[in-house]
Design goal:
2 domains, 10 strands, single chain, 32% helix, 25% strand, minor pseudopilin epsh fold, 5 helices, four-stranded antiparallel β-sheet
Length: 187
């Protein structure tokens, strides 16, 4: 005769014998009586802290890494090339030409942008406190003299159909202004 014993915390529970095939089902109440307090577990044992990170901890770490990389990469010069500063200068000039066009339309007055060959800066005429700085990155220079003037309708009256070129000593970008519309193209 074989008995099955189960340990429930510190007390034993006997569940019948193996005389017949289903003898373990024939247990008496006295055999199954246990102290309920022994079967209960404290909630802290059920929900014990699992090892790992919470979602908020992961998000905070990613935010810190993002902020640090946004600050350090430009300062260390990682991933910046002379080509990127040339492209940036071309887009700055294009944006400033558009600014001059919009200024002329908004104030119903003509506005000019004057580029001087060999310089790394350009000027606006007439000047305004709202004008951009007109400064290019240190290694970028203007390759030709060019003046673009917009009237109060935003049309180029001088320099329409022309272009200004900027260079980093190796490559050159051309910023063109379409005649009649003043649309800026960068190539």
């Amino acid at each position: 005769m074989e008995e099955y014993k189960f340990k429930v915390r510190s007390s034993e529970l006997r569940v019948g014998s193996s005389k017949t095939k289903y003898s373990w089902l024939r247990t008496t109440n006295s055999e199954l009586k246990t102290n309920y307090s022994e079967l209960r577990t404290h909630h802290s044992e059920l929900f014990a802290r699992q090892s790992g990170f919470t979602f908020i901890e992961v998000i905070l770490v990613l935010m810190i890494i993002g902020i640090l990389s946004a600050i350090l990469i430009p300062r260390l010069g990682i991933l910046t090339t002379p080509d990127s500063s040339l492209n940036g200068a071309a887009y700055i000039i294009g944006s400033d030409i558009r600014y001059a066009q919009e200024y002329a339309m908004a104030n119903r007055a003509s506005k000019s942008v004057i580029f001087t060959s060999g310089s790394s800066a350009y000027t606006f005429n007439p000047t305004s406190g709202l004008d951009p700085s007109g400064k290019l990155p240190s290694n970028i220079t203007i390759s030709n003299n060019f003046t673009i003037t917009f009237n109060s309708l935003g049309e180029p009256t001088t320099g329409g159909g022309g272009s200004v070129m900027v260079s980093n000593g190796v490559q050159t970008k051309t910023i063109g202004v379409v005649n009649y519309t003043g649309k800026v193209n960068i190539s």
